[in-house]
Write a structure and sequence with these properties.
The complex is a heterodimer of chains A (319) and B (280). Helices cover 77% and strands 1% of the residues of chain A. Chain A is mostly helical. Chain A has a two-stranded antiparallel sheet. Chain B has 280 residues and is an all-alpha fold. Chain B has 13 helices and no strands. The longest helix of chain B has 38 residues. Chain B starts with a helix and ends with a helix.
């Protein structure tokens, strides 16, 4: 009886093994099939353009005539163009003015919005977040009216109440930068707040309870528990804000209207790139600019992330 | 006495918190309100000192002027079509790939997944010019598909879907379905999709709003006003020479209202979608 029983079971195992093997093979084909669309699309509209862009950076090309290889000339042209450096300067200045306050205010708002006694929580959360859902174009248009050059524009009226002279927001060196930074801040601060709020809510309550027992006051708790525990979230927002700020395009383009590509008060790196490519048909220098931008983004983002993570470390060490 | 003092001090700090949040909320909402005021006022209201702060009665007139400048409804429709199709395609691509990465074993799985994550850090500007020529060569310049194609690439979607599927779909369920002779695609259709509907909603919101608000690429590809999306059309409003603020704000107002209504209706889902999308 035993061998009789053993035989079919041996067979069964064999069949099962075979089945499992063909099943695994089938699964593997399915898996490759399911991830293929992404990689096909990536190859066509992601990888190929990237390689082409790098190639193009070493060519002189107006989009129609044959390309001429020019070596590093495009980089030379861009890097010696005062307007490019003006664009770098503008981008960094507006980046700092527009995004650094977001991080500070975002943390403060998130902390306040999470206070236990706070009523109308949802109302406050929704209103502070609301600017984020409007498009950048809408924001730029609203602010271009709020901050227009007229003496009667609302921004200038508020200044006059404080006894200050009107500013020509849309055409002065600092007027444009301040107005654009304010609109960037206004649109994004709620977004950062929500991310910090998610971070604060993930901090275990025991930590605060233990700190209270040890006699730490609210300020100490905020400094030694909330901020260090928020560090990953702060690093994340510093990274995304840096990358976003260096890609600033829509706000200044719309704020400056028809003069966007001829004036330089708020010309950013991406506007400079766009102008080279689609206004001046100089695709080689535009591609070189894109590569320089990529390097700038990587370096500045890395520095910022490094600095942010350093701050938390020092603080914890100091404790 | 001592206790009393403590309670009072506490309520002062409470007052401070409410004041600060109140002011912030006001500053958040004010531009929206002011947009409405300008959208309902004649252009001359803009030149008055002190500024007009109450709505006027030009809501319809100003909007008529917008309709003379741009094809408002056509542009809204174009934006809607682009966003809807991109959202559906991205959801399909991401959920299938997410399913594969969450529930199948295959050679190169980890390397491929990391490759997908790495594509997230490529700045869009680097590809702008070649993408423009690619679209142009394919004869899709100045067409809606030409705008859409670029947005089909969405590594974040695959990442989110993988996370959600591996967390919420038990392996036993899939094994049981396989024993019953279910094909892999059938498992996707009748197990994965229904269970992960919340992830579909979240990712759908992220993709839809991101594409709706995008400007640079739409501005680059579209030339003929007939094909303008709402963002490109709105941007044209400020390019006219005699600037009519009432008209501009009316255009922005009517383009923003539908968005605000949808947001107020779904705000919880909306906010959680943002945190999920960026944190994990």
């Amino acid at each position: 009886m035993d061998p009789v029983k053993a035989n079919p079971s041996m067979n069964e195992i064999k069949v099962k093994k075979k089945r499992a093997r063909s099943e695994a093979k089938k699964d593997m084909y399915s898996a490759y099939l399911y991830i293929a669309p992404f990689f096909i699309i990536f190859a066509i509209i992601g990888l190929y353009p990237m390689i082409f862009s790098i190639y193009l950076a070493f060519q002189k090309w107006n989009g129609l005539s044959p390309m001429v290889s020019v070596g590093l000339d495009n980089f030379k042209v861009v890097l010696t163009d005062p307007l490019f450096w003006k664009a770098v300067y503008n981008t960094i200045v507006m980046g700092i003015m527009g995004t650094a306050p977001q991080i500070v205010f975002g943390i403060i708002f998130a902390y306040l919005l999470n206070l236990a006694f706070l009523r109308f929580k949802n109302f406050f959360r929704v209103t502070i977040f609301m600017p984020y859902i409007t498009s950048m174009v809408a924001v730029a248009l609203i602010f271009s009216v709020l901050f227009s050059n007229h003496e009667s524009s609302l921004a200038n009226y508020v200044l006059s109440l404080a006894g200050l002279d009107p500013v020509s927001w849309a055409s002065s060196e600092w007027g444009t930068k301040i107005a654009i930074s304010i609109m960037v801040f206004w649109r994004w601060v709620g977004y950062n707040t929500i991310i910090y709020l998610a971070g604060i809510q993930s901090i275990p309550n025991d930590l605060y309870e233990a700190a209270t027992i040890d006699g730490a006051n609210k300020t100490q708790q905020f400094r030694y528990i909330t901020i260090p525990m928020l560090k990953p979230f702060i690093i994340l927002t510093v990274f995304t804000s840096t990358v976003g700020a260096l890609q600033l395009f829509s706000e200044p383009t719309i704020f400056m209207g028809t003069g966007a590509f001829t004036r330089d008060e708020a010309m950013t790196i991406v506007m400079y790139l766009y102008r080279d490519a689609f206004r001046l048909q100089s695709f080689g220098t535009a591609s070189a600019t894109a590569i320089i931008l990529l390097v700038l983004i990587s370096v500045i983002a890395a520095i910022n992330v490094y600095l942010t993570s350093g701050v938390g470390r020092k603080r914890r060490g100091g404790k | 006495m001592n206790k009393n003092k403590k309670v009072r001090k506490f309520s002062i700090s409470k007052l401070l918190v409410y004041t600060l949040l109140g002011i912030s909320s006001l500053l958040s909402l004010f531009p929206f309100y002011w947009m409405f005021v300008m959208a309902t006022s004649p252009s001359s209201a803009f030149n008055s000192i002190p500024p007009t702060l109450t709505p006027g009665n030009m809501l319809v007139e100003n909007f008529k002027k917008v309709l003379n400048q741009i094809d408002f409804f056509g542009s809204m429709w174009n934006s809607f079509v682009i966003c809807a199709i991109v959202t559906i395609v991205v959801l399909f691509i991401s959920s299938l790939a997410g399913f594969a990465f969450a529930k199948f074993t295959f050679r190169g799985k980890n390397v491929l997944f990391i490759a997908i994550l790495l594509t997230m850090i490529i700045p869009p500007q680097l590809g702008l010019i070649p993408q423009y020529f690619l679209i142009s060569k394919a004869g899709m310049l100045d067409t809606l598909p030409g705008v859409m194609v670029l947005f089909f690439l969405n590594p974040l979607g695959i990442f989110l879907m993988r996370q959600y599927i591996s967390k919420s779909v038990p392996d036993e369920l899939i094994e049981a379905a396989k024993l019953d002779g279910c094909s892999n695609f059938r498992i996707y259709r009748s197990i994965i999709v229904p269970i992960t509907l919340p992830a579909f909603a979240t990712l759908g919101i992220i993709v839809f709003t991101a594409v709706w608000g995008e400007f640079l690429w739409q501005f680059t590809v579209l030339r003929d006003p007939e094909n303008y999306t709402i963002q490109v059309a709105l941007a044209q409003l400020s390019n006219t020479h005699n600037v009519d603020f009432g008209m501009i704000m009316s255009g922005v107002f009517w383009a923003t209202v539908p968005l605000l209504l949808v947001f107020l209706f779904f705000n919880r889902l909306f906010i959680s979608s943002i945190t999920e999308g960026s944190v994990k």
